[in-house]
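Before drawing any conclusions, I looked closely at one protein's amino acid sequence and its backbone structure tokens, quoted below without any editing.
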Amino acid sequence: MSTIPKNGSVQNTVSNLSKQFRANIQTYAIIVAMVAIWIIFTITTGGSYASAQNFSNLFRQMTVTSFLAVGMVLVIVTGGIDLSVGKAAGFVSVVVAHFQAYIWPDILPGQEWLTTILSVLIGLTVGILIGTFQGYIISYLRVPAFIVTLGGLWMFNGGILIVTQGRTIPANQPLFSWIGQGYLEPTHGWIVAIGVVALLFYTMFNSRQKKRRYGFELSPLYIDILKTAFYAVLIAAYVAVVNSFNGVSIPVLLLAFAAVVMAYVSNNTRFGRYAYAIGGNREAARLSGVNINNSIFGIFVVMGFLCGVSGIVLASYVGFGTTAAGHGYELDAIASCILGGTSTLGGEGTVFGAMIGALIMASLTNGLQIMNVPSSWQYVVKGIVLILAVYTDVYFKKNR
């Protein structure tokens, strides 16, 4: 009598795990691909790829385009595109650098804290204005996003040249540089990690409680615990590795915060659910009472805000505002989303997937650079990877 429940329990466990695997097979596939890339580069570079210093640099290098990818997820989910994000971030970076180099030293000499805060606020404001301008034209004037953002790409590229006057603008003041180049003390890094892990478990249990209250179907508790524990182990492993170098990088910490916020917004708010509804079936969403114009406008404003964040980190990380600022970043951001499972047809995509996609793009670039592969071939490799990712997306959709 006692063996029957045990067998039934084992069968249920295997069935639940199998169901979870099939439902998330695309996500697992890109994680396996990322690990395979790391192993290959570690072997081909004689282990230098897996060093703590390179691992820290890898995550820091991915942050600028990852901020763009975080916002791009919802843009693509609604069936849109934003080709201007790279140059928009570049424009923000040169504006911030211009204020840091030429405006604040004359107006507020010696006020480093104040000038850094003001520079950040100006960068965010410029980004929000960009998103508002483009979002209004796209959502209310009904001009296709492809055309508006393509025009924006040219405009912001021109804006970069106007602000810089063809010169490199220094933005390497110590406090401002800390935003893109600073590190947390090892102890502070562990405190942040413990706080994040506690937040993950709290969010998991709170989500289960809400689903139970409203009568939604709950996955088995052990599956949710295993998932959360897996993320907790990843966080602890990352902190342990980077603490052996300089500690947790500040831009990585900012990116993690932005990703968590955007993941919550996309999964647990009306704003996020409307975006998926619009991408899944625009007409059905309209008939259900979704204000499509307002939703798309809001998504582009958020995208503009994240362009502002990306531009600030870019200026701080590079230490200069340059004429080539943001070049090609829009392609990396779009590729990161698609690699992470965001469907080019709209309606599907996750912030977590986009982060994995961005990490894969950064891993490829970083590994090929260590191997001294010419930049021309780096573009070829990334192009092949992107095409394979889109093919994989189409393949899984067809099978479903």
Summary: The longest strand covers residues 169-170.
